[in-house]
């Protein structure tokens, strides 16, 4: 019986090639999107799912609350570990400190490695919580002494090529020119997906030989460094609520007096292991990989669901429309004894065959899609994941669901036919079925319309963000950062001097970051006037006396600081208002208390955006490098050009790099950033959304129009005789085309009416994330509607014109 | 075998009710060949549909092998039909997507016959209908006569007790028509009961008894042999 079903299914597919193709294309697009997005979801949700008792492992993190908002830090104060050490809820507690050495040397073969990444200082407990497989060395003793290191297999091969792991025990490496460290163990790298990308584990006591010694010995409650990580493994019977209570109490007990003054507080949180991969607040260890985003994954899943639904709708519409063509077969089968259940199974089988065929195509297509969506797809997401049992099972389940969604209603309709009526050829299209088809078509076009309008408006907003005046000069400016290990100011000054001698360079300034960047340096200030004490947060940017000039910052009153070391502030308008001054001139000469020292305001600059236009302008001050004798804040040299023609630019950039090489020896640490590119990176996520929307729009239009084409072909074929009669009676081509198009265009128009408020609401909600937003232009709606009607008309006319053009003699004779 | 008493069937539209069968009664014995004649719209096809358990009467009694089947649900009717009744239609009603062999095989699939047995029985009946050489052809590739032979083959492959033929020669020329009638006679002589609806006096003469109908009622009954 099954064989018979599949045979007839295949023959039916081949007999109605156009409809089958439309169905296959629609389902293939939907399934491909689902497969790729499904793989991405699987990929991200299976990070670190292999650790033994992973559900009992937590990272302890810090949240700092202030009237300005909550700041998250993945680290905790070193004092916390000791305070919770005797808590019986914990099976293991480990702290580790992430630190990238500037250099590691293998003296034996005279090789050195600059800035090796993923190095931590930790203890045995880390290996009790995370189950590494030891290839050499003993887990219980490997880190019990200072100056020991456990290497991963990969790192061991780099430092000691061609040496067996067992032979590495006892070998010595020199860190940062001075610390001798002995290899005491080699572990296998985790074979599965993990955010624990560490390659070197140095014994924790070794930290006492580094510049962290004081911090480690003092273990102050007030000091929190994101490189200091604390992990705990709870006991099986642990009470999370009581642990959190204890953490809250500790945070409260150790609140700084200064923090209380500024209404700031700290909270410790238990972050589950499974949350680390997704939670952007605290981040992961390999920043280059980019954090997974649950909201992005759910948006993607939503797109996949919509595309799949559109494919299923095509299937339902075309199959119920074509039902009358299957009527005779159904009548005969019923006459010969087929039950309704058997007929339903038969039609479901046919649907499954088509869905299965589409799935095979989708798997092939997915490989290509993974490349197209490379912005979304993690680099190491491989096609091999398709072999994972859970993925195979999910695909089968998805095929089953899609088969039911697409096939069940048509099967129900077809199997319900009255045997006597169909054998007598008395078939009438039920009004209900026609209504359902219309409803589903409207649904399809509503989705397509929402996507079109969304694409237009998101594009408009991104364009607005990229082109809006940030309040300072953003084009023809680059920033070159000095090497991370280089603290000396003299070299920066020498480099700046060399840059000034390049004729294409207009201006040079030494400072911290550019006016808009990802970095912030925040402090608290107080201003006391005759009536009150006003407190505020204040961000700093550090720059020499040419900084404001280079970035064309607008000075509204006063002047900029006299030199790089004088203690003077140039505040922005936001801070000016916050401190209660009525005009810029009023602030000049007044003093703010910063770190208990009076600091005069010498100038007021116009507001500019320090971050993306999603965020508000914060209170800020420009200042020099007061503490340069202890720690210089000047890390970058900013350069503006006379003109930025591409040829000129190329040679100027070469000169900038050559000058760098002549000053610094660490040439591999050369970092140059274009100001306008930095600003573009603020909107990477928005650009991704835009790209996703472009695709979703294109595909939804394609699927919907294909479905429409199918319905038009069907309807036109049914009305061939009517067209013939009308033509004989004198109807023009235009009249006939209008007659045929009217019904479908009406559906598209209804979809437009439904889509407009939905799209408006969606875009309105999305725009709430931005402080600066473009207007929701009604033109986008009109263009969106017109585009949809254009596409629909194109598709409809493709068939109706040929039908209207046909010689009526043929259609009438066939009667 | 078949006993109908005061059988009624109405067709209703929103405004009008048409009486298709009006208290019709007659009996057909096992092994009989009965022809039913009458003008278009007299209720012949409605009667045949009810006898073939494709449709339900609105009133009266319909006994099949002594069992009252009027009021049977769809599943019961389907079950009774597939084991006992074969159909031959004027327009052949073969499934275009299936080959000759597959069309004939279909009733056996629905009655759950095993594949090997199906093959044997289909081949036997195709041989008997002299259409074996066309077994892999599709219906559109056959002449009308050949198609009707396939339809007859399909009707008899399950060895039904009753064959209902609705204008079996209506779409055929006289030579092919006669051949089909000869096939029905052969089947009848082998013991199968046949009820045939026809407009053709010539075909009706092959039967044992002619029932003439008008406006849903029996008007005459002629016994021929």
From TrEMBL, chain A:
It is found in: Cell membrane. Keywords: Cell membrane, Membrane, Transmembrane, Transmembrane helix. Residues 20-249, 439-611 form the MacB-like periplasmic core domain. InterPro entries: ABC3_permease_C (IPR003838), MacB_PCD (IPR025857), Macrolide_Exporter_MacB (IPR050250). It is a multi-pass membrane protein. Residues 302-418, 698-807 form the ABC3 transporter permease C-terminal domain. It holds the Pfam family FtsX. The chain crosses the membrane at residues 21-43, 296-318, 351-370, 390-415, 436-458, 692-714, 744-764, 776-796. Signal peptide: none annotated. This is ABC transporter permease.
Automatic annotation (TrEMBL), chain B:
Pfam families: ABC_tran (PF00005). InterPro entries: AAA+_ATPase, ABC_transporter-like_ATP-bd, ABC_transporter-like_CS, MacB-like_ATP-bd, P-loop_NTPase. One of its GO terms (molecular function) is transmembrane transporter activity. GO terms for cellular component: membrane protein complex. Residues 2-225 form the ABC transporter domain. The keyword Ribonucleoprotein does not apply. Keywords: ATP-binding, Nucleotide-binding, Translocase, Transport. The keyword Transport applies. PANTHER family: CELL DIVISION ATP-BINDING PROTEIN FTSE, LIPOPROTEIN-RELEASING SYSTEM ATP-BINDING PROTEIN LOLD. Belongs to the ABC transporter superfamily. Macrolide exporter (TC 3.A.1.122) family. This is Putative ABC transport system ATP-binding protein. It comes from Winogradskyella jejuensis.
